[in-house]
Amino acid sequence: MTTSRSHPATAVPAAPGAPAWAAGILGRANGLVTALHAAFVVLVLASAVRYLSGHGFGDRAPWVLTGAVVLLATYAAYRVLPSRVWLALLVAVWFGLVLLAPSFAWCAVPLSFVALRVLPFWPACAVVAGMVVTTVVTWTRMTDRLDPTIVLGPVCVAVLAVGAYRALERDALKRQALLDDLHAAQGDLADAQHQAGVLAERARLSREIHDSVAQGLSSINLLLQAAEREWDDRPGAAREHAAQAAATARDGLDEVRRVVRDLAPAELASGDPALPGALRSTCERLAAHTGVDVQVQVHGTPVALGAEVETALLRTARGALANVLEHADATTAVVTLTYQPDAVVLDVRDDGRGMTARPTDPDRGRGLAGIRERLQALGGTLVLESEPGEGTALAASVPLERS
């Protein structure tokens, strides 16, 4: 059983190579990035226009406009600078610009959200508090009096922003914890179902062997012992016992063949030729449970191939599709079954990333070796073609016996 785990309400770490947004509170809430970009640019431009409308192009205007351009340029550098260095430069430029023109204090609103996205909770709170103090002081200096709305307005905005982010962060972490537990439970359930299936199959085979092969061998042994005892005194009865033993042996051989035949995939028991339908049902199941569009195409006239060949081709298709789903990162896979006059060919193609290198781990790559060995046992061949970024194509061919 999977036990639930506690998840502290801490910032989500940034992935290597991620932009500056990727750490801190709700660092993966990517839908907010566009809104922050737009709000910041609009507020910077509006603050510059407000300053020019009130002060004209004289006095500090060149410095204010230069500071606004530097602020926008610094903001645009979030992809190339380390996140905390970028935030520190951004706040420093904003601070200097607010000292020149208090109108730019409104830019503290998107900057507060930026700080909450980049930094862990308490350092982000400290940055937000510093910007609130700066805003209150600069506006109070500009109006030459202490206005309660100027003091309480930025404080309320900051408290609401931080509180909302904190609540959303905790909710997101709880959902992630539930998803992690659900995935772990699904894995445990799949393992339990697999183990139960293995045990059930072992029990079935045990019953089949006991009720057919073992009992047949026991009967043959008893009949032969009886024939041995009566061979001299009652040769007719002895021959009858021997004949019964031979018949029982033939029946036992038929039972063994039936057990072996039942080990083939169940889809192939639907009739001849069963392989096209088995491929379609397999691909439909895969497409229903994954994001890969798996298509099946059949060319030529389907003919009965025999249980051994059909089983080998079906398991080849399953193995190839398992590799596509696990490694290829593909969106589409096409399985083509072609009946030729002298051979049957199975092609599996995908539009994934292709094979970039041969596996170095000796425990990897055995699936293809198993497929090749299975086909070689039937006189078939396996051809694999792959280029990085251009997908992979696997072609399995098995010759047909001419009648």
Describe the structure.
The protein is of the alpha+beta class. It is about 65% helix and about 10% strand. It is built from ten helices and five strands. The protein has helices at about 30-55, 60-75, 85-100, 110-120, 120-145, 150-230, 235-260, 275-290, 305-330, 365-375, and strands at about 295-300, 330-340, 345-350, 380-385, 390-400. α9 (about 305-330) links the parallel β1 and β2. α4 (about 110-120) packs parallel to α6 (about 150-230), α5 packs antiparallel against α6 and α8 packs parallel to α9 (about 305-330).
Tell me roughly what share of residues is in helical segments: 55-70%
State the helix count.
Answer: 10
* SSE-based structural type: alpha+beta
Report, as a whole number of angstroms, the end-to-end distance: 57 Å
Give the gist of this structure.
With 403 residues, this protein is of the alpha+beta class. It has helices at residues 31-55, 61-76, 83-100, 108-118, 121-143, 148-230, 235-262, 275-289, 307-328, 366-376, and strands at residues 293-299, 332-339, 343-350, 381-386, 392-399. It is built from ten helices and five strands, in the order ααααααααβαββαββ.
SSE topology:
Elements (H helix, E strand, L loop, with lengths): L30 H25 L5 H16 L6 H18 L7 H11 L2 H23 L4 H83 L4 H28 L12 H15 L3 E7 L7 H22 L3 E8 L3 E8 L15 H11 L4 E6 L5 E8 L4
